[in-house]
Amino acid sequence: MSAQTAIVTGASSGLGREIAMLLADRGWEVVGVARRAFHEAPILSVAGDASKRETAAHAIDAAQQLGKIALLVNSAGAGVFGPAGSYDDAAISRVIESNLLATIIFCEALFPRFRNDGGTIVNILSTAALIGKANESVYCAAKWGARGYTEALRTEAKGTKARVISVAPGGMDTAFWSERRSDFMNPAEIAEIVVDAIERPVNVAEIVINRA
């Protein structure tokens, strides 16, 4: 039997990379999507903008060569921060496209398949999807939108073979942040929680991870 295959967006760095590597360590075939090609054996890299349908199509084509696609992890994202009124059009587009549109595009491509054949979707959100934060207005808007889409998708998945999980981590010690703090969490530890939930037979709908 061929191995199960996962597609992970945002796989070249941060939490996405940690999840992709851990899945590979546990025997999954992994296709990693990032804006630029990267070399991280044994992950198969697909370069492209995750908010574009053609990137999703390329990733799916690559994954199908490895085995049955059973998992999608949407971890692509970008942050631009500052007070409301300081964002130009480019910054707004970047945040919305990478955090919201990319999630929608990949889910739209794979949800019908998972609904019929079985599969798990994991959308990486943020605690910014749970509460408004000063100087993060556009980022919060994108993550709240992704949370709304995920909850609607989960409702549609009821009674089907698809499973939808949302993950809302707090600040992590990654290059996403220009200034890191001592209370930021280790992304490798969060990845282990996420992958454990994916492989657990019980249905987990939402995971919120924050340092106590």
> What's the CATH H-level homologous superfamily?
NAD(P)-binding Rossmann-like Domain
Proportion of residues in helical segments: 40-55%
Overall structural class, as computed from helix and strand content, comes to alpha/beta
Tell me the span between the first and last alpha carbons.
42 Å
Please tally the β strands and state the result. Answer: 7
- Ranges where pLDDT stays below 50 over 5 or more residues in a row are none
Mind telling me which CATH architecture this is? 3-Layer(aba) Sandwich
The radius of gyration is 16 Å
Give a structural overview:
- By secondary structure, this protein is an alpha/beta fold.
- The protein has one domain (5-209): NAD(P)-binding Rossmann-like Domain (Rossmann fold, 3-Layer(aba) Sandwich).
- Helices cover 41% and strands 18% of the residues.
- It is built from five helices and seven strands.
- A seven-stranded parallel sheet has the order 3-2-1-4-5-6-7, with helices on both faces.
- Helix 1 (14-25) crosses helix 5, helix 2 packs parallel to helix 3 (89-117) and helix 3 runs parallel beside helix 4.
- It is globular, with a radius of gyration of 16 Å.
- The protein starts with a strand and ends with a strand.
Write the layout of secondary structure elements.
Layout: E1 5-9, H1 14-25, E2 29-34, E3 44-47, H2 53-64, E4 69-74, H3 89-117, E5 119-124, H4 137-157, E6 162-169, H5 187-199, E7 206-209
Parallel strand pairs: 1-2, 1-4, 2-3, 4-5, 5-6, 6-7
